[in-house]
Hints:
There is one protein chain. The protein is α/β, with parallel strands linked by helices. 36% of the residues lie in helices and 17% in strands. The chain is built from eleven helices and eight strands. The chain is globular, with a radius of gyration of 21 Å. The two termini are 26 Å apart. The mean pLDDT is 92.
Amino acid sequence: MAAASLMVHITEDHNEVLTYIYRAIARKKLSFSKNTLLHFDSHPDLLIPPNISASDVFVKEKLFSSISIENWIMPACYAGHISRIVWVKKEWSTQISDGEYIFAIGMDKDTSQIRCSSTEPYFVSELLYTPRDNLANIKDITLTVVTFDSSNSLQTMCEVLEELSDNSNIILDIDLDYFSTTNPFLSMYSEKQLDILATLYKFHEETTPELSAARRHKQLSMLSSTIKRLASQTSSASLSNSVEYSDPDSERLDLIRTLVTEEIESKGKVDPETLHEHGCTFDTCGLPHHISTEKEIDKHIADSVELLSRLKLKPRLITIAR
């Protein structure tokens, strides 16, 4: 492809790049199926929108209004547009370990929502796991995760990603937080609250993914309902005198009460849904946080440019999120 015809789109929110990917497909500038997403990011972005049915994926207006920065890729996989994802990350991103993962994405036969068969904690902890035999309209996905840091030289990275050189259906996607990223919750909560959230929302693996998912569902349901009930109290004083709720674990209940009390005392009120949503990010490892120096950023950029130059990629589309 001639350099003059290369499409490059820059967005603010990362999920906005999906609009340009779909537009390129509609204009036949990008293959309808079996595209590879080469994804430079501090975050996998591989969650699934919570309030969307599988059929809604094929209604663009519903799809684009449902996605956000953490969940825009998987709907495109279910639609068949992306079949291979290569997530290139830095050492501070630990949500998914390096390796190759092959799994199915499809419609859950019981709920009609999109789910996947990956047993990785990243997916199970978010209640996105469903056994393959309970999925319909299956698409097979290959996910490669590789950390580009001092332990992986440019030569090693080239060897790992060499096969991409002959791939003619590549979307090169770069989130600038790949070079430096912050966890916004570190500035929103006290150290005590962060410790409590990490304790309450920690994901516990069982002997099977089914048991892990069942325990996680029970855990999150209990936390959500208890936080909502305690948040309905009008003050921290009334909280301290509130009745014991359904949670039989008194220590856990005390932690939730302390969490909500501190939120009321620091902000004057508590939004239970937002607090619960933030708590869910403390499942396996929390969000990555690494503020790079200007010198580090320059090196990260130079290394990335050198890697892409050596691979001699010919992407059909480049998307960049600021």
